[in-house]
Design a protein that fits this description.
Strand content: 15-25%
Order of helices and strands: HHHEEHEEEHHHEHEEHEEHEE
Strand order of the largest sheet: 2-1-5-4-3
Helix content: 40-55%
CATH class of the largest domain: Alpha Beta
Length: 501
């Protein structure tokens, strides 16, 4: 044991040294942080999409509204030119300056809208405007260079990109004498104010999005922690599990996926506990039962005489016989223990359709070779059942062997099968001394012997008290049980009660 511990310590140290010499293991990122990160990324992308879309919609509305204003003002001025009358004379306008003055006096434009009359004269053009303030750092009526560019432009509408702000414009030429325009009506829209309002809305949206993102981080962190609490509990429980303590379980609350995970983990712990229990029982059983024959073998070998006389030879022969008998018993014990260990596996029983009458007859024929008894086959069930024929035969032969060991030559042993209340029953009944009531509940446990049976003999084929345990394991493998019932006239009846599908 000391050597093993020292080797384990050295191995651990070597692993630690190897890990220290190599590259450092990457730091783990918790699932809670990853969930929060993905939530924040998705939320940020969504909020960014909302802000960008809102900005695009607001700027498009400004553009559409500006185009509508320019088109409407131009159309109204053209209608005035075509149908307007001078209020003083009642005749059509013959003077561009008079026409522009009358028209501008009657207009009520929007704050960012600027209406102008532009008359080409020498030495400098004349600009006619409404007497009101324009919300721009440089109104168009004071920007002679921009007005000249608009007048000279061949297009009827356009955009001026100025340092003082963008201006959308449209013009309507006035041609009272010939085709050369002597004057023009100019409508200009200073879009920087409307665009500034749109940008202010976008800024407010950005601020709200930032606050929403922070709130999302806080709420997401709390919610992720609450959702992953059972997972952390699973991790903590797994860390506390040892081979000696597999009893810890996770409390199950709710019906969500996390609860299903906890339930699955608990089921896994149940299987592990059963597996470790079976392993411990196997080791304990093997150590408990093999210790006696090993001691007997060692004792006989140590006492074996080394003489050459007839007595020494006879003693050695007797010793070899005893040792061989004990070794055979050890071999049977090991086989029985391995069989009980296999009973914990899911493939221990492999059911298939079996004719019960044929199976019962085969068991009867095999049991008759076990001893000189009065073997009887009183009844057989004429039906088909889903059974593992090999395992059932093994259990029934074991019960027959048990009956032989607890009866005398010539006594009756009955083997049969029947269907009762939707269940299949296979039984072995003997006429021996029976089993005391206080032992009826313990004779199916490992290494328990029924002392009330004749001669104090054991209930197992190996003499180790494992036979009835094997029978019980086979019955439970078929989702059934083994019952001990009294026999009419004395004796014991062992019944395999198996559920039929």
């Amino acid at each position: 044991m000391t050597t093993t511990a020292r080797e384990g310590t050295t191995s651990t140290t070597d692993r630690g040294a190897t890990a220290a010499d190599g590259a450092r293991a990457p730091s783990r990122v918790s699932a809670r942080f990853r969930i929060l990160l993905w939530l924040v990324v998705v939320m940020a992308v969504a909020l960014a999409a909302v802000v960008v879309t809102t900005r695009s919609i607001l700027l498009r509305d400004v553009e559409e509204r500006t185009s509508q204003i320019l088109s409407q003002e131009s159309s109204e001025f053209r209608n005035f030119v075509a149908r307007g009358r001078d209020p003083e004379t009642g005749e059509r306008f013959s003077d561009a300056r008079r026409l522009l003055n009358v028209y501008l006096e009657r207009q009520y434009p929007e704050p960012a809208e600027e209406l102008l009359g532009y008359i080409v004269e020498s030495p400098s053009p004349i600009v006619i405007r409404q007497q009101r303030d324009i919300p721009s750092r440089l109104p168009l009526h004071r920007d002679a260079g921009s007005l000249e560019r608009i007048a000279a432009a061949p297009e009827r509408a356009g955009t001026l990109d100025r340092a003082e702000g963008e201006v959308r414009w449209a013009k309507v030429p006035i041609m009272p004498n010939g085709d050369d325009p002597q004057a023009m009506f100019v409508v200009a829209f200073h879009a920087d104010r409307a665009q500034s309002s749109a940008h202010n809305v976008v800024g407010i949206l950005l601020a709200i999005s930032g606050v929403a993102l922070l709130l999302t981080c806080a709420v997401g962190w709390a919610v992720a922690g609450s959702i992953l609490a059972p997972v952390r509990l699973v991790r903590a429980t797994a860390a506390q599990l040892t081979e000696q303590d597999l009893t810890r379980r996770i409390p199950i609350r709710g019906r969500d996926d996390i609860s299903a995970l906890a339930e699955t983990f608990n089921a896994m712990l149940d299987r592990l506990e059963r597996a470790f229990g079976a392993q411990r029982r196997f080791v304990d059983d093997a150590g408990h039962e093999l210790r006696t024959p090993i001691t007997i073998v060692r004792g006989h070998l140590e006492l074996m005489s080394e003489g050459e006389g007839p007595e020494a030879v006879a003693e050695r022969r007797e010793t070899i016989r005893l040792v061989t008998d004990e070794l055979d018993r050890m071999s049977r014990i090991v086989e029985d223990l391995l069989l009980l260990a296999k009973a914990e596996r899911p493939d221990f029983v492999q059911p298939a359709p079996v004719q019960l009458a044929e199976l019962t007859a085969d068991v009867f024929v095999k049991a008759r070779a076990l001893g000189d008894r009065r073997w009887e086959l009183p009844e057989v069930a004429e039906c088909e059942a889903e059974l593992d024929a090999q395992r059932i035969t093994q259990a029934m032969v074991q019960l027959a062997q048990n009956a032989v060991e607890h009866t005398r030559p010539g006594q009756a042993v009955r083997i049969g099968s029947r269907v009762a209340e939707g269940r299949v029953e296979l039984y072995v009944a003997d006429s021996g001394p029976g089993v005391r009531p206080d032992e009826a509940d313990v004779i199916f446990e490992r290494f328990r012997r029924g002392d009330a049976r004749r001669g104090g003999r054991t209930g197992g084929s190996s003499g180790a008290g494992l036979g009835l345990s094997i029978v019980k394991a086979i019955a439970e493998g078929h989702h059934g049980r083994v019952d001990l019932r009294p026999t009419s006239g004395g004796g014991a009846t062992f019944v395999l009660v198996l559920e039929t599908p």
